[in-house]
Amino acid sequence: MSNVPGKPKSRRRSGCPVSISLEIFGDRWSLLIIRDLMVRGFRTFKEFQGSDEGIATNILSDRLQKLQASGIITAEEEETDGRRVNYRLTEKGIDLAPVLLELLIWGARHEETGAPCALIETMEKNREEVLAEVRRRWRERDCTPLLPKFGGGAVVAIWLQQDGHSLGTKRRRMSGSIEDEIKKANAFRDKVEELVVARGSCPTGDRNTLLMGYWSLVFEFHRGILCLLSHKFYGAAFALVRPIIEATVRAHVVIMGSAEDVRKLREDEYRTNLATIGTEIDRYFGTGDLFGRLLTSAREALHSYTHAGVLQLGRRFSGTDLVANYEEGEILEVIRVSTSVAFMVNNLVTKHFGFEEEWKNNMGLYEGWGRHA
């Protein structure tokens, strides 16, 4: 299309459509204004000023005028207040939706951004649905944000409306403290695990075989929890806290329990009573009220997170949005509890088998980790 009827001719650098397009919105601000109109529901001068990029007032006024002159946006008086102006994309402006979407995907793919990978993957796989939703909101004058702000730890989601709930992908932008805790916990686990692995072999027999099975399971659960957290699958990680604690409890039962208890463990008939077993472990091993206090205070939470109870379900919503919602403090607590449990089972194994040097090193490593956790 070489000429558009009704459009005044102006001097162009060339006849290339890309060059002409860049003359309209190729600066560092114009597309951001279009973005805010298109997916964030912005309408007013004040809202544009509040955008994270921090556009100056004079630049904002200039770009709004240029976008109006180019027919990309239009200014409308507020019906209830003639002094207030609302901006809106024109048909020409909303036709930039595919351009903006591809820029979003390209930037997140090739640069370090605040956009979670899961969000970008969802948008890549559902391009047509995303663009249809953008156009629907424009057509119906729906100012509900399709995308909140990126960065600063903000929650990011893409909504597809269904039955009154917002369905979406949400991934918390992982804070530095969580990343650091995961790294430290992984390093600590590898060191204490190696204390036992380096021995090459352990005594055998019913109790010892079961003990080492639980020991191995605890360390695998710990790896799984940290791996899930690092990939922001918080619900799955939280669900593994009870299994890692219960495996450690059963490891203690293997040593202190009766022959009947061992038989039940071996035949998968043993049922852990978290209300009483903690006190029994403390009494047998002389650990004060460590296990009793832990299992008594956390029993209901452990059950709820593992068995899809209300604590787990409650963190699948943020208001009416169906998106995961786990607090940073909760995530850090899962890291610290699961890492302490790995220490406990390693402490049990090294002491039980008389690995005195390894036991001392295990204690020392735990004290070092605890000072920085």
Considering the chains and any ligands shown, give keywords for the structure:
373 residues, 3-stranded mixed β-sheet, 18 helices
Question: Can I get a quick summary?
Answer:
The protein is mainly α and 373 residues long. The chain is 61% helix and 6% strand.
List the helices and strands and how they pair.
Blueprint: H1 17-25, H2 30-39, H3 45-49, H4 57-69, E1 73-78, E2 81-89, H5 91-94, H6 97-110, H7 117-125, H8 127-139, E3 160-162, E4 165-167, H9 176-197, H10 206-230, H11 234-239, H12 241-256, H13 259-266, H14 277-285, H15 290-306, H16 310-314, E5 321-322, H17 328-352, H18 356-372
Parallel strand pairs: 4-5
Antiparallel strand pairs: 1-2, 3-4
Helix pairs in contact: 6-7, 9-10, 9-17, 9-18, 10-12, 10-17, 12-14, 12-17, 14-15, 17-18
Helix percentage range: 55-70%
The biggest beta sheet is recorded as: 3 strands, mixed
Following the backbone from N to C, one meets helices and strands in this order, namely HHHHEEHHHHEEHHHHHHHHEHH
Structural class: mainly alpha
What count of structural domains? 3
Mean pLDDT: 85
* Number of contiguous helices: 18
Q: Which ranges are low-confidence, i.e. pLDDT below 50, for 5 or more consecutive residues?
A: 151-172
Strand content: 5-15%
Q: Count the strands?
A: 5
